[in-house]
Amino acid sequence: MLDLLVKDATLPDGRRDVGIAVSAGRIVEVREGLRDAPAHEVVDAAGGLVSPPFVDAHFHMDATLSYGLPRVNASGTLLEGIALWGELKPLLTQEALVERALAYCDWAVAKGLLAIRSHVDVCDHRLLAVQALLEVKRRVAPYLDLQLVAFPQDGALRSPGALANLERALAMGVDVVGGIPHFERTMAEGAESVRVLCEIAAEAGRLVDMHCDESDDPLSRHVETLAAETVRLGLHGRVTGSHLTSMHSMDNYYVSKLLPLMAEARLNVVANPLINITLQGRHDTYPRRRGMTRVPELLAAGLTVAFGHDCVMDPWYSLGSADMLEVAAMGLHVAQMTSQAAMRQCFDAVTAAPARVLQLEGYGLEAGCHADFVLLQARDPVEAIRLRATRLAVYRRGRRIATTPAAQAALALPGRPAAVDFSLERRA
Ligand code: FE2
To answer: Which domain holds residue 340?
Structure first.
């Protein structure tokens, strides 16, 4: 007797009329035409898309939902955001941090977002945010995988004590080594910070995820050092470059040499479309650069590229709702990834790709994987992005943990249907 059978599902890879059989929190069978099997609960997906959960590879949970504290970012720039965060940090309490982070995790679960890699600022000798997010990680563990990155926001070398704080954070249970080379005082110190931090990670057997080259400066080339250090230390596939926005503005010849080095290092890349399109190009008049890294070219070079949300209602960004389909939609537009195949890659960039970046165990819709999935009010990944589809039901380990009623608008127009249907196929 199964615990759960989901029947007539469409999977992100295009398979239709698929049954997903669940027992003891794991998927035990996934098969086309599987409609009948004894189960305690049967869910009819009615041809709807069933996807593995959304995954956010880049977030700041210590800052989220703090919009307006202690004031609003007037210029909207990255640098004023960092300054504003510096004003807020001394005012933070552990209780408020935990409360805001838990509230955000509620939003995430409702949107089918069940794994988040969050950076946590370690440039505070109290390590208040580290303690708070470790507590949150423990409390949400039954329903959300929270992976933490020790992030020296003010510079690992530039900020006194940051390196020691980072090592303390790792000892306390933070998972990943972070960095911010472009924010160190000089290019040379930025490169040195990459070397030091990668060595710490290699020594401790940790993954690396650095904010890297988050500027429009085409000569900000710390990604090159990051890739070279990855190769030197044998960290292939274990290192992520987040943002990499300077690549947007780099010389094409230089990029043609950089991409093979990044591929050799099996570097993972995280673009943050909502934030990149908002914060980059701020020193431009017109034309004004988009600033997002070169996503299609990185994918073509064989790299794993994920899209992150980065910020929701914090010193850097006043919008957002934990909706990774909004992130995918923005990435699609900014990178002009408009072919059917490219739009599906944008869906992958908020599901399977970030799961690889986080090295999540048991992620996916195959026998043996965790029974974690989302039933969407859409028939395929492209429609899901187009409609920012409602998450009808969210499952974790085979148990339904969130539901949302189907979106439906009624019309009162003479001679027209009573309900509006946004599907082209049903109209044909
Ligand atoms: Fe970030």
So the answer is: 54-358
Marked catalytic residue, from 32, 41, 214, 264: 214
d(CA 25, CA 225): 42
For residues 154 and 260, state if they share a domain. Answer: yes
**Which residue type occupies 252?**
N
pLDDT, tens only, 61-84: 999 999 999 999 999 998 899 999
Domain total of the chain: 2
Question: Do 334 and 384 belong to one domain?
Answer: no
pTM for this prediction:
0.97
Q: How far apart are the CA of 138 and the centre of ligand 1, in A?
A: 22
Provide the b/e sequence for 259-274 (b: ≥16 CB within 10 Å): bebbeebbbbbbbbbb
326 belongs to the catalytic site: no
Q: How far, in Å, is the centroid of ligand 1 from the Cα of 275?
A: 9
Alpha carbon dihedral 238, 297, 329, 304, in 10-degree steps, equals: -20
Say how many Å lie between the CA of residue 336 and the centre of ligand 1: 23
Residue 337 alpha carbon to ligand 1 centre in Å: 23
264 and 329 assigned to the same domain: yes
Residues 149 and 193 in one domain: yes
Q: Which two tokens stand for residue 173?
A: 């249970």
CA–CA separation, 138 vs 173, rounded Å?
Answer: 11
Helices (H), 111-221: 128-140, 162-172, 187-204
Q: What is the average pLDDT value for the chain, to the nearest integer?
A: 97
Q: How many CA atoms lie within 13 A of 305 on its CB side?
A: 29
Find the 211 Cα to ligand 1 centroid distance in Å.
6
Let me know whether 197 and 312 are in one domain.
yes
Q: List, edge to edge, every strand of the sheet that includes 373-376.
A: 50-51, 373-376, 391-396, 399-403
Distance between CA 86 and CA 104 in Å, rounded? 21
Q: Which residues pair with 31 in a beta bridge?
A: 19
Interval 213-239: pLDDT, tens: 999 999 999 999 999 999 999 999 999
Q: Give the 3-state secondary structure of residue 343.
A: helix
C-alpha separations of 419 from 234, 392, 409 in Å: 58, 19, 6
Residue 387 alpha carbon to ligand 1 centre in Å: 27
Q: Find the CATH number of the domain harbouring 277.
A: 3.20.20.140
